[in-house]
Design a protein that fits this description.
9 strands; single chain; five-stranded mixed beta sheet; alpha/beta; about 30% strand; Beta Polymerase, domain 2
Length: about 200
């Protein structure tokens, strides 16, 4: 008996052919990679074609591949990964699309195909700096309006750039440069005999 994933693979091959950059199977789910310029056309067909029937987008996340794996990664840096669900056909699909420009990652918004993507795209914009062209309200959703940078990027410093505190004189929240001093966090494995002021 043919597996559902094999049926889905055949349907995807028939629908898109060489428009798919790649297709792979992992953990019982298929992942396809498509070009940014083909995303809207493919996404529309994924929803409208009854043999595919992906009526729901259940998640979208940003990814920064700049330090992917243990070896040097040689490819485009930013991607958006959408997770689609077909209730009619009882299968799922992962769609990965890479932003063609690492310095200014821009991808088309999926909001006119699946409106559930609204806050997911805002989150990917906020945390990774991926701009979704055509999104009607692309603004930060998790960090503060004055936040500098995108905290899920691999090159974002662990301590951030600024810190926030309440100023009692100004009666408002203010931002100032980070004041955390570098410190050694190496555990002390071999202790001196009188470490800490008492004999062990």
């Amino acid at each position: 008996m043919k597996r559902k994933l094999d049926t889905l693979k055949e349907s995807l091959d028939k629908a898109f052919g060489n428009k798919l950059k790649s297709m792979s199977e992992s953990l019982g789910q298929l992942t396809i990679i498509v070009d940014a310029e083909d995303l809207i056309t493919l996404a529309t067909q994924l929803r409208e074609d009854q043999t595919l029937g992906f009526e729901q987008l259940i998640d979208l996340c940003g990814v920064d591949y700049s330090r992917y794996g243990n070896s040097g990664y040689d490819g485009l840096r930013f991607a958006a990964v959408s997770h689609l669900l077909s209730i009619r056909n009882n299968w799922r699909l992962r769609v990965r699309v890479f932003a063609p420009n690492d310095d200014m990652p821009v991808l088309p918004s999926l909001i006119n195909i699946w409106n559930s993507v609204n806050w997911y795209e805002r989150e990917a914009f906020d945390l990774y700096g991926i701009i979704f062209e055509g999104h009607p309200d692309l603004r930060r959703i998790l960090t503060d309006y004055g936040f500098i940078g995108h905290p899920f990027r691999k090159d974002f410093p662990l301590s951030g750039y600024v810190e926030m505190q309440y100023d009692t004189e100004k009666k408002r929240v203010i931002y100032q440069p980070i004041t955390i001093e570098s410190r050694e966090i190496t555990p002390r494995v071999i202790r001196d005999e009188c470490y800490g002021g008492f004999k062990h």
